[in-house]
Every structure is written in structure tokens, then in C-alpha cells.
Amino acid sequence: MKAAWYEKYGPAREVIEVGEMAKPEPSPGEVLVNIRVAGVNPSDWRSRTGTRGPDMPFPRIVPGQDGSGVIEAVGEGVPASRIGERVWLYESQWQRPFGSAEEYTALPSERAVPLADSTSFEEGACIGIPAMTAHRCLFADGPVESKTILVTGGAGAVGNYAIQLAKWGGATVITTVSSDEKAAHALKGGADHTVNYRTEDVVARVRELTDGQGVEHIVDVDFAGNLDISRQVLKVNGVLAMYASGSDPAPPLPYQPFMRNNTTFRFVLVYTEPTEAKQQAVAHITAADKAGKLWHPVAASFPLEETAAAHELQESNKAIGNIIIKL
């Protein structure tokens, strides 16, 4: 079978190879999926560049946590009735050497989720880690119905799913963006209001939109970069859920203001969240998708032979929407 892989850390074009590998067999509890489309996430390039640790955890790594395809075979303990199912995947390569950038992948059965008939393979490959991260940020601390939520970076993959899932959950959504194009993207995802953080005073605008009250919940793409804004717009007993802090991995924390407001800090990494949280996310995302409440925007599509280019685009942070690889 064809696959893309790397055997050392480094720039995409220097280390990613595409060639033939042996087709895997499903172990007990696993399913073998014929991959139709693979998703590309920031965690894929970060892992490839060694930011997750100095040593390669496996001699060869096939990248890709997300994807979609059809179950072709099952391992011991998995019902044969799953053969032929259309599925979307998550955590394909988490603590494993071989992910979704290959024609066939074997992974635990629960990580292959039935895909709605109305959702294409291209759309299904977008769901995985972005939607599950957004779900955890939103619902880990209870329902969001009737709340006002600030989503920072609403044009990003996680941010856009956060907008959609928040609206599905009955919330009002304000989101920050950096351009008119990104504002249009966020509004298409269902945002009620957009704020251009490059040209507007975010704190003043959020206060204006909430009649001076602020928001009950924040889903944040940059904990450090937005910390002062969060402090000023988050209500007493509010939740600050963050899934990245790219501008500073170790920011100083103004303890007293957040302590006085009884702020809940929710750090989110979908890979290590509780099993029950993943199960809830899968159930909710599947229900929303089947109901036609989710939009899966694709920014760019690449063939497997151009996996390095797909990684480069993801690393550039210029794509508005999801990046996929068609097999």
C-alpha cells in the first residue's frame, strides 16, 4: 500500500517520504480502515518537528490523527457487522506509529466512528481532533444553553467548530478574527458577532455587545496572548477554556483578579482527556452532524504524494478551513 512517513524530525520536504509499505492487519479490538481522505492538523507538524520531545517515539511514523474511509476488516472482539461501515477517525496516530496518511490503517474500534450518509469523506476527514477539542472546551463544565460565549480565532478549525457546536448547544457566540474574509467564514459557521482584533478594541466591543455584562465562557486559541482580554470580559464564575498558548508557553498569571472572580481554568488536550469525555464528544458531534448542524469547510486538498506541501500549508497558518489529503 502507499503511505507517507518520516524517520527523523525536520522540515516537511526534507523528511517526509512517500512510498510502499506493508498493509497492516487489525489486532484484537481494532478495525482495518481503507482510508479515503486524511486530515492534517497542527499537532501533525509539531510532532514532525520534534516539539513533542527530542527523540522519535518510533523508528518510522506515518502522520495523521484524523481521516475517513470504510472498514474493510475487524480484529478479534469487534463485530463483523462493522465491515463496510463508512467512518470518521480520531487519534489514529496517538501513541502509535502509523496514522491516517496511508491507504490502510488499523486502529482501536472506538476511534472509527460511523459517518453520516449525508457527510462526504472529504468532510468526515475534517471532524476528528478539531471538533473534539472544541467540544471539550465548550461542554466540560456543563451545558452552554443561553450563555454568551467568546470564541477567539473563530476562523480556525477548532474555533469554527466551537462556534457551530456552541450554537447547536443554544449559546450566543461572539468571535474574534483578523480580516473581513475570516469574519465572513466565522459568520457562515454561525457566529452572532465578529470582532476584528487588529482594528477594534476587543474589550470595548465585547462589553458593548453584552450591554456591559461580559461573557460567561471563553474558548481560547492563545491563552497568553488573550489573557488580559479574558480578565476584562469574563464574568464572575466564568470559564476560560484554552487549547493553545502559542505566543508564550509560560505566561505570568494575574492570580488575584481571576481568584476574586472564581474563574474556572480549563486546559484542554483532547488526546489525554477522560474516556467518558471522548465518548460524550463522539455522541454529540455525531448527533449534530446527522442533524445537518455542522459545516466542514475544506481550505485545500492534496494528493498523498504532496503530503509535505499539506504540512507546509498547515504550518504556515494561512489556510482558512481544514486541510485534507486524498488517497
Apparent shape: globular
| Unreliable stretches | none
The CATH architecture of the largest domain comes to Alpha-Beta Complex
The top level CATH class name of the largest domain:
Alpha Beta
The CATH superfamily title of the largest domain: Medium-chain alcohol dehydrogenases, catalytic domain
Strand-pairing-aware structural class: alpha/beta
Number of helices: 10
In sequence order, what are the helices and strands, one letter per element? EHEEHEEEEHEHEHEHEHEHEHEHE
Quick take:
By secondary structure, the chain is an alpha/beta fold.
Main traits of this protein?
single chain, 327 residues, alpha/beta, Quinone Oxidoreductase, Chain A, domain 1, Rossmann fold, 6-stranded parallel beta sheet, 10 helices, 26% strand
What report would you give on this structure?
By secondary structure, the chain is of the alpha/beta class. The chain has two domains: 2-129 and 273-326, Quinone Oxidoreductase, Chain A, domain 1 (Alpha-Beta Complex), CATH 3.90.180; 141-267, 3-Layer(aba) Sandwich (Rossmann fold), CATH 3.40.50. 30% of the residues lie in helices and 26% in strands. It contains ten helices and 15 strands. It has helices spanning 12-15, 42-48, 121-139, 157-168, 180-188, 202-209, 227-233, 255-260, 275-290, 307-316; strands at 2-5, 17-20, 30-40, 67-74, 86-89, 104-108, 112-114, 148-152, 172-177, 193-196, 215-220, 234-242, 264-267, 298-303, 322-326. Strands 3, 4, 5, 6, 7, 14 and 15 form a seven-stranded mixed beta sheet that branches. Strands 10-9-8-11-12-13 form a six-stranded parallel beta sheet, with helices on both faces. Strands 1-2 form a two-stranded antiparallel sheet. Strand 8 (148-152), helix 4 and strand 9 (172-177) form a beta-alpha-beta unit. Helix 2 (42-48) packs across helix 10 (307-316), helix 3 crosses helix 4 and helix 3 packs across helix 9. The mean pLDDT is 97.
